[in-house]
């Protein structure tokens, strides 16, 4: 699911050759590491329909003293985007982290306009622009989105 989402969402952001040839192995290695040795505060929430996974959010509670919990990944099956699954997952992540008090943040590729629109609609504030390198080794500018009150986001 993670790779399928990236192929669609990042097709105009990441190198097409990398997406075609290296993405699956990269995501598998990432999840092998995450599941074998989770970061402190890491949780993965999965949205299901009829027993099948349709989306997920990986979060790290208390990841940053200034910005709060980190939404490390939020992905929905490409055919289901726009159907409310992402909103449910983001609110569930916020509810999970609200017990710690404070906010939550995430990073989004600057060129990922559909995701940026979603985070804007969900009340996220762009608080920082960062020059980063993507997993394909190419420049991939990112924005940090921030919600000051995770409990308010969870409440919708």
Automatic annotation (TrEMBL):
GO cellular component, as recorded: ribosome
Lineage: Bacteria, Pseudomonadati, Pseudomonadota, Alphaproteobacteria, Sphingomonadales
Coiled coil regions, renumbered to chain: none
Name of the protein this chain belongs to: Ribosomal protein S18 acetylase RimI-like enzyme
Alphabetic keyword roster: Ribonucleoprotein, Ribosomal protein
Pfam family, one: Acetyltransf_1
Superkingdom of the source species: Bacteria
Keyword check for rRNA-binding: no
Organism: Sphingobium fontiphilum
Metal-binding keyword on record: no
Domain N-acetyltransferase: 1-148
Molecular function terms, GO-annotated: acyltransferase activity, transferring groups other than amino-acyl groups
């Amino acid at each position: 699911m993670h790779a399928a989402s990236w192929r669609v969402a990042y097709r105009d952001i990441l190198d097409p050759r990398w997406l075609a040839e290296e993405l699956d192995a990269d995501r598998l290695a990432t999840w092998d590491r995450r599941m074998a040795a989770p970061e402190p505060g890491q949780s993965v929430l999965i949205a299901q329909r009829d027993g099948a996974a349709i989306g997920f959010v990986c979060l790290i509670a208390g990841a940053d003293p200034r910005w709060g919990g980190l939404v490390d990944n939020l992905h929905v099956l490409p055919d289901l985007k726009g159907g409310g699954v992402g909103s449910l997952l983001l609110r569930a992540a916020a509810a999970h982290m609200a017990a710690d008090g404070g906010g939550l943040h995430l990073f989004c590729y600057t060129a990922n306009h559909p995701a940026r629109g979603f985070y804007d609609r969900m009340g996220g504030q762009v608080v920082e622009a960062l020059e980063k390198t993507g997993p394909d080794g190419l420049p991939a500018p990112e924005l940090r989105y921030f919600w000051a009150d995770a409990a308010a986001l969870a409440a919708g």
